[in-house]
Structures are given as structure tokens and as C-alpha cells.
Amino acid sequence: MSAPVRTTCPYCGTGCGVVARVAADGIAIAGDAAHPANAGRLCVKGSALGETLVPDGRLLYPKLRGADGTLQRTSWDTALDHVAGALRRIIDTHGPDAVAWYVSGQLLTEDYYVANKLVKGYVGTANIDTNSRLCMASAVAGHQRAFGEDIVPVSYEDLEQADLVVLVGSNTAWCHPVLYQRIVAAKAQRPQMKIVVVDPRRTATTDIADLHLPLRPGTDVWLFNGLLAFLHQHGVVDPAFVERHTVGVARALAVADATAGSVRAVASACRIDTSALTEFYRLFARTERVVTAFSMGVNQSSAGTDKVNSIINCHLLTGRIGKPGMGPFSLTGQPNAMGGREVGGLATMLAAHLGLDDARHRALVQRFWNSPRIPTRPGLKAVELFDAIDDGRVKAVWIMATNPVVSLPDADKVKRALKKCELVVVSDVIEHTDTTAYAHVLLPALAWGEKDGTVTNSERRISRQRAFLPAPGEARPDWWMLAEVGKRWGYAEAFRYTGPHQIFDEHARLTAFGNTDDEVPRYLDLAGLVGMDRAAYDALAPVCWPVAAGQAGSRPLRPFADGRFYTPERKARFVPTPPRAPVHACDDDYPLVLNTGRVRDHWHTMTRTGLSPRLATHIAEPYVDLHPQDALLCGVREGELAWVSTRWGRLVARVRSSGELPRRSVFVPIHWNAQYASDARVGALCNPVVDPVSGEPEFKHTPVRVEPF
Ligand code: SF4
User: Fold this and answer.
1) Any idea which GO molecular function terms this record carries (predicted)?
2) Which residue has a Cα nearest atom 3 of ligand 1?
3) Atom of ligand 1 at shortest distance to CA of 335?
4) Is the model's pLDDT at 609 over the cut of 90?
């Protein structure tokens, strides 16, 4: 057996440390006892990682679509010359906004950094968005509005130290299993710790809830506006904190009072029991150490950003932020959703938490990169980007490490758009996916276990992913492909990287560049990690940012402990959140609400977890879950097949009546695709409405009908 290699799990945002060993009969995987996120624990997906490291279906060589319409093997030079040349022609003819990149939270921070540098600094467009737009863009926008910067103020230790943990729109037990285990263990040690779960569904997570609030889908803002009004009415306010460290409280309170002034009115709007709601409000009011952790049930909404700010408002009013055991906490979905944000991995951001809409920020980044250009306005967000391909504004797209034909809302439109697109480049690990079918150029990427770099988990902890397997075929790192295109455009100096350590060093230097009170202060600061050579980078231990100069290896700093925020006034902002109903209401044709999400043992579009026989045994096929009475009314029966239809598409799934759903709600998992079930892509069902601020789709609320097959 080979020497152990410490790396990081490639699935959820918990970011568990993994120890991998290569043996004659396969890969041995264990939890890393030294990693602060998991202390040796792994969930079933993490522990089955070895089973997914098989050669089946791998894309091993670059391929170009020939005149006969088939994809044919070619050399890297030919493929990259073709990509660089075709993109150049389109940019020269139609301008930089005619090309786009759609990337992924599966990329490593170094891949993300090079992609953003190439696209924003050298192509001169901000048309680079990521599938993280689908899961945490509302949290980013909420943080930026309230704190002036995308800062997560809570760590996993805070969850364990809290006396009340409120889990909102999060099936933590299935989607962040090791984090959930940490909460369970903390509650076992301190039974006085209370857990409240706010979720329309009864899930595995509600098993540890002292109180479950099964609110009507889409009514979270009513709930938290009601809490804000309740706290204010009962004098549960930290006046010194509000006075010294915040702005805008009066307006936020006025909106909360006007829209959710009585518990009875809120209970009616949220369709929950008044006494249960009162119990929650009282519990929150009397408990100082509260963490409100939220996930996709909050973010994936046409009011997602307001939902996030309605939660943050309650923490600001009570001064419950910046101290141990308290604060609002966004649980990120993907292994590197956070790392991507750090290097500007959204069409609305620049690298190092700097903003496209601020001329000083743009000038600072351009100066650091010494780049010929920098875009002056945000680019197209995920759903808009594929709309722009569909209507011909965007003529070329490079899709990296993601499968939008399955995962985007109105996914059939994505198919149509890609079919029309002049140039579709896909870099991926797997050869045949729903998306690679539309590629003109396929570029083989390194997979987990083969690639090297960093990821950042939900608590801002940067960890190394390390290679322990050789590159198969001619697979290459994503950052290398991008740098090679940059070199072909004449930017050899800017993209002369010999390894990910140099890219990380440049990223760290950018976080420190001009990061002073006199220039552009920001909390993301990796000055303490600047100057690592390959050996130091290889040895990098997991560390939470910021890492100021001289602080590497010390205990994590606590954001906002000094009451300093990153808005121009250095104060946190209350954001008024007038409640809005989901955009599409149910009607006679589509009388139920479709909710979508993960199951315990699968990941995204199953290109990896689908390879593990063990993981397939938990839930073997796509299903539609609904209340037994709704099943009766729809004429469908447990175990039989049914059509699930919306205005955007339909699929066939097996009926379940688990008893977990309230009346008028339907749940369909997100994972299955053409490879594993005949076209059960839930994305094809979902409405393409997005939050007006964050651009995050409303995956949790599409009117739907269920009928016998
Ligand atoms: Fe991987 Fe998340 Fe499971 Fe940890 S909890 S092993 S990061 S899937």
C-alpha cells in the first residue's frame, strides 16, 4: 500500500479531510483525524470515494467534432489551437461579450483564479458564471448587502457552542452529513442545546429537532420579519451594538412591523401553528447563543436574497454576531463554492472579493494583473447566460466541470441553446454526459485524486486537494488548459505557471494588494500565505481565512468581533425585506408545488456517485414523493410510475408517499439523468424564474401536476 495522502472530499461544503492510500486491490479511503472539519468522520458518500475512482466512462483524449459530425481524437495542440482561434475570431468580430464561460464549484480555487483572470482581465468580459449561482448566490448577495463583503461570520465550532441552532431550508442530515453528526454529538453532550428546523418537509434532519416548523413553501421572509418584529416588541435588542455598528434599523423594523406585526398573522401566512411559532420566537428571544444556519431552501428562491437578509436582520438587532456560538451561517452546497467566490468566480464579482461596479476595485485588480482590459459591468448570470446563447448574443461557451443540460432550470431550453451555439467547448472528466453531447471540442480534465489545488469549505477553511493517482490518458488540469489558451493569445507572461502553488501565491498576493484602510480594505486577506514555494504549498495544513501576515497556523480569527464591517460606513446594514410570494402560483392545471433537492447517497448528476454500487442501494431510481391524500387525488399509487409535469417539461418517476411532505407539496430529487434513467432530468421541470438580486433560480417552487403513467 502506498504512503497515505491527505486530501479533501470533493462533495459537500462540509469539506472533510480524507486520507487516501493506493493498494493493489483499489483505493483505501479513511477520514482524516487531523482535519478540523471532520476529525476523522466521513459520511457514506465520502467513504465510498474509492469505488468511484474507476476508468469507466473517462474522457482520456482531446476530441474535435469532424465534418461528419462525430467527435474524433486529436492532439492537445490541435484542440487548443482550435479553441483559441475560434474564440479569437468571435471576439474580434462580435466583441468580448459574445463569448462566455460556465464553470463549477467542482473546480479548484486555482482553476477558478486562472479562468477569471483570463476572462475578465484578458478577454475583457465578465461573462463567466458558475453552477454555484444555482446554490449560494443569494447568500453571497445577502452578505454583500449586509456586511459590505461576502463574509461568512460563523465557524463549525460556533454550531457546537450554540444553545439554539436554527436550521432553515436545510436537510443537513443528508446534505452536510458530517456537520450534522457534529451537531448531534454536541446536543448529546449538552442536552439543553435546542434545535429548531424550519422546513416544509419532515426530513432526516427533523429527527433531532426540538421543534419543527413546516412552513408553507416560500414564506421564510414572513417568518423572519415576524421574528424581527417580535424581538423589537419584547425589547430583545442590543441597543449599543445597533447604534455603534449598524445602519438602517428603523426602516427594516417598519417593514417588518407592517408586514408581519403579529404572531397570529405570521402563523397564518406561513400556514403553521400559532403556538409552535410563538414557542420558536420565545426560544430565539431568550437564547443568547443562536446560530441560524441556512441552505438551499432559503437561497433557491425568487426572494432568496431577501430571505438571507431577513435572517441576518434578526442577528444584527440582537447583536448576535461576531461572538462565540452565534451568527447567521450559510451552508454551502459544493466543495469549493466558497473558494470560487474568493477569486471572483461569479459574473458579478472581481477576484479577491472586489467588485465590478467600483472603479477603484477595477483599477486595483487591473493594476495587479497588468492586464490589457477589465470589464466595467457585471456579466451574464447562469440562467441569463444560456438565454443569451439561445437568442444568439453569446456565440461561444466553454463549459467546465458541470452538466447544465441536467442541472439548470428549464433545462430543455439549455439543450436547444447549445444546439444552436457556434462553438461549445466542454472540459470534463466523463466522456458521455447530457452536456458533452453538444460539444464541438472535448477537453479531458483531471479528476479528484489526480488534481492538485485548494478548496474552501463553508467555514472559510482552505484545504488542499492532493493528487495520489497518475493522470489517465492525456487528462490535464483545468487551469493548464486556460493558461494555454492565454499563451496562444500572446499573454505568455501572465499565464506562465508551472504549478498550482504559483497560482495560489498570486491569489494570496492579490488579497493583500492595496488591502489597507487608505486603499480598498477587505476582510479576505491571505497575506500570511504569500510566498509559499511548492514544498510549503504541498504541506499546507487546513486554515481558515483571513490569514494576516505572520498569522499562518494560529487560531481562526472571528469576523466582526471588533464590530467592523466592510460597507463604506464600516457598519452593518439592516436591509428592509418586504415579503413577496413565489413568482408562479398554483392553479387548476398545476395544483401542487414542486420542491427539488439532494438525496443522501448521490451527488449532483451522478457522474461519480453513480459508479458506486454501494451508493446505488440507498435509493435506486428517481421518485416523486407526495402526501398520501394528494396521491389519492392525483390517482397515483405508491410504487407505481407517474408523470410529473410542469409548464416547462415532464418526466416519469416512481411514486412514494413517505409521509414527509405536507399537503400540496411534491419532492423530486435532482440527480438522475439520461445516463441512469431515461430522461428524468428534474431541471427540465423547473421554472427559470430567478431572484432579481442574486440571479439564483427558484428551484423550490414550481407549480406541478402528478398523473398516472
Ligand atoms: Fe464529503 Fe460532505 Fe460527506 Fe464530508 S459530509 S465526507 S465533505 S460528502
Assistant:
1) 4 iron, 4 sulfur cluster binding; metal ion binding; molybdopterin cofactor binding; oxidoreductase activity
2) 43
3) 7
4) no
What's the CA-to-centroid distance between 309 and ligand 1, angstroms?
28
Instruction: Give the nearest ligand 1 atom to 14 CA.
Output: 7
**List of residues 6+ apart from 566 with CB closer than 8 A:** 147, 148, 149, 151, 521, 522, 523
Shortest-distance atom of ligand 1 to CA 31: 6
Interface pTM, i.e. ipTM: 1.00
Homologous superfamily, domain 5-52: ADC-like domains (2.20.25.90)
pLDDT at 554 over 70: no
CA of 500 to the centre of ligand 1 (A): 24
Q: What residue ranges line ligand 1, CB within 6 angstroms?
A: 9, 11-12, 14-16, 38, 42-43, 45-46, 176-178
Closest C-alpha to 702, from 641, 650, 656, 643? 650
Residue 356 has pLDDT above 70, yes or no: yes
Instruction: Pick from 29, 32, 42, 602 the residue to mutate for probing ligand 1's pocket: most ligand atoms within 8 Å of its CB.
Output: 42
* Contact status, residue 192 vs residue 198, Cβ threshold 8 Å: no
Closest atom of ligand 1 to 8 CA is 7
Return phi, psi of residue 161, to 5°: -90, -10
Domain 63-135+336-497 has CATH 3.40.50.1820: no
If pLDDT is split at 50, 70 and 90, which confidence band does 548 have?
Answer: confident
CATH architecture observed for domain 592-708: Beta Barrel (2.40)
Average the pLDDT over 634-660 and give the result: 95
What amino acid occupies position 229? A
How many contiguous H segments (helices) and E segments (strands) does the chain have?
25, 26
User: Which of 178, 183, 184, 456 best tests ligand 1's pocket when mutated (most atoms within 8 Å of CB)?
Assistant: 178
Domain boundaries 138-331, corresponding CATH code: 3.40.228.10
User: Residue for cell digits 426530513?
Assistant: 203
